[in-house]
Amino acid sequence: MSNKCAIFDLDGVLVDTARYHYLAWKELAEKLGFEFTIEHNEMLKGVSRMTSLDILLEVGNLKDAFTEEEKVKMATEKNNRYVEYISNIDESEILDGALSLLQELKQKGIKVALGSASKNAQIILKNVGIEEYFDVIVDGNSVSKAKPDPEVFTLGAETLGISYDECVVFEDSQAGLEAAKIAGMLAIGVGQEKDLTNADVVYSTLKDFDIERYF
Ligand code: G6P
Ligand code: MG
Known about the structure:
Blueprint: E1 5-8, H1 18-32, H2 38-42, H3 49-59, H4 68-86, H5 98-107, E2 111-115, H6 121-128, E3 136-138, H7 151-160, E4 167-171, H8 174-183, E5 186-190, E6 201-203, H9 211-214
Parallel strand pairs: 1-2, 1-4, 2-3, 4-5, 5-6
Helix pairs in contact: 1-4
Bound molecules: 6-O-phosphono-alpha-D-glucopyranose and magnesium ion.
Magnesium ion (MG) binds next to loops.
């Protein structure tokens, strides 16, 4: 196949940040007096910060307990904690197979884009040392619509002048895979097949991805 562009989600695909999101959300839940488990955390993958907070509050039966202003304050507090965690990360947090795939794509002359909902994407890429591989970075600061809206992927393709059907998206969330499909892009799931029913094909890690088959 002759796809021309690889678009990567960040959290859970390239870098193991999901556990830091989890730790920071869990601390907030504890302060509010309820338990937030790793299973609950699954629901937050690929979801924007404020929507994540809404889901968390629903878990704690506190859905309508706070004003918008209080919610912004809580989300900011969670983010400050999260930023503390990620300020110390390094290349050891890069997920299996991600670095070699980025290198191979570059060698083949394939364009590489980031398509992440995170407003912290730039600092994460910089801290783990993979910023240089990206031709375009689209993150939570550049888009207004959250996945499954495809904006975070289509904006990257448009910036690079590549048609959507020549793009391959790598995602670990159902919302992100759905976004890729809506855009008409090939949706590669990274994770467990049972969780990623929206994917065209699922690999348990990027290490198993067969680059020759798709690029
Ligand atoms: C990614 C993660 C989500 C997170 C979102 C926003 O999509 O999978 O869990 O809520 O980014 O991240 P941010 O760093 O802006 O709070
Ligand atoms: Mg993700």
